[in-house]
Amino acid sequence: MAPPPPPCRPSSLQPLLGPPECHDPPPPQAGPTAAHPFTDLMVANFDDGDGNLPRKGQTENNSATFLSTGNPCLDSFFHVVPDTPPESLTQRLESAWAHDPLTALKLVCNLRGVRGTGESDKEGFHAAARWLFKNHPRTLACNVEAFVGFGYFTDLPEILYRLLESPDIRARQKREWQQQKGTQKKKLRLRSFPSELRNKKRIAMARKLLERYKRDGEFRFLHDAVSGHFAHCLTADLEFLKSGEINKISLAAKWCPSLDSSFDLMTPLCQSIAKRVFPRDLFSEYEGLEEAHYAYRVRDRLRKDALVPLRRILELPEVYMSAGRWGDIPYNRVASVAMKLHKDKFQRHDGERFWSYLADVKSGKPTIAAGALLPHEIVASLDEPNGGEVAELQRERVVEDLPKAGKLENCIAVCDVSASLSGAPMEVSGKVITFSEFPQLHAIQGEGLRSKTEFIRTMDWGRNTDFQGVFDRILEVATAGKLRAEEMVRKVFVFSDMEFDQASTNPWETDDEAMTRKFGERGYGAAVPEFVFWNLRDSRSTPVAAKQAGVALVSGFSKNLMKMFLDDEGDVSLLAIMEAAISGEEYRDLAVVN
């Protein structure tokens, strides 16, 4: 670990110049040869007569539901999922911040957490970061070090870039890329794009940053905080390299923008980082140099004396790939996301050795990384060319790692496989109950991930989501088998979009209220299972209010959340689960500044 950086404060370094073209005029050259469907169904002014409970409304399928838990932070924790529109996310974040700023900040970081710390919702995190800059810029800037602990160093230049562009810049770029994918248009466009026009675009991008840097004090403060954190980590890593403490080296060198890379052109970070790593007052060779020459010299030195040696010692696959040294790639050190992105290249350029590595993993010799991948991402890669073998091995790694954190006992999953939800259901102890007009209990069949996934996809869903029917079925099985109360299933995971069908004769009895009543009528009032409602789609339906005991509300696609329920002997409650999700060591360094 690097030593702690200095307190968050504005930089006292010389002004940021950008590339030479921005401050030195170039020599003259010759001319070139949709409204949410829930809104219409919501009963906006319904009053249930209990001032202690939030308002009720209806699901998209006309079942009674709460419209809120009554706690804005819980609402944000439960309702924000990867497909939540930025406008809805920021509205919830604003309400949560007004309720409890520190908890709201922790929930922002929980969105990003990729290594057991959160939901791995990159787009949600960046939408929240944009809101933070607009409303609490010093809090954003002074927590950049903590943000890296939840995601990656590359999140920092990404925040700067998105602030310079429109909020939907990445979505637009993705659409453009998908339109060009599989065609020759991109290659032809790049080939015919004159170098002088590319250079003009580069200069325009740099000038845009420099103008914002000079004009906007808060943006300048954030830019300096980002470059300062990179410089602090790189300086510490060079000392670790010199002392031989290789295991302490961070990934700052991996994610630091390379000279003249897209991030460097868009944010001129390399210059700012280099001037902090090699300041004038500590290196006599820069004494007397004019500012532009000094900036040029230290940028090149950053590459040669810092990034190159640190990246070499990190054994990054990208370094070997760019050098064409495919046969030297240490596959056991390739991160899970990099494996997902580059496996086709490994097979194409180093097929024999790569397949030998996969065979060794299958036999239990080396391991394959899977920590940063979400379950549905692994399932999706089954359909990619030659992706099945890697997906199977990564799934096995996830299954092996999860029990190390504890066990799930006496639990079952209820999976929504209706048309309103396109997601990857999760299995618990190999059994699952489907939502449908006639809910069925299935033992998941198949040896590998592909066969299990195909089995789940064929399960009948009956074109509806009858939540109460599920528990009618559980009670039928329990009473027919004369189960004692202590033998009843203890915990039920409900994976759904929460848009349940109307089933109660009382139009304003929620599904949770009806379920509690039915268990009591069958003699199991003291054995009502604990429920974990796991929200998988953007929705306003809220199964229970904040004070409801024996219920947890979580959301998103991350396997990390499952760890909170392993070997859990305590009582489940909404607040306790949310607080557990944001109570890790990484969250303790977060601070609200403004």
Automatic annotation (TrEMBL):
Native species of this protein? Answer: Eucalyptus globulus
Residues covered by the DUF7788 domain: 429-571
Residue ranges annotated for the DUF2828 domain, each copy included: 59-408
Top-rank taxon: Eukaryota
Which Pfam families does UniProt cross-reference here?
DUF2828, DUF7788
PANTHER family (alphabetical) = OS06G0652100 PROTEIN
What InterPro entries does this protein map onto? Answer: DUF2828, DUF7788, UCP015417_vWA, vWFA_dom_sf
Gene3D superfamilies annotated for this entry? von Willebrand factor, type A domain (3.40.50.410)
Q: What is this protein called?
A: Uncharacterized protein
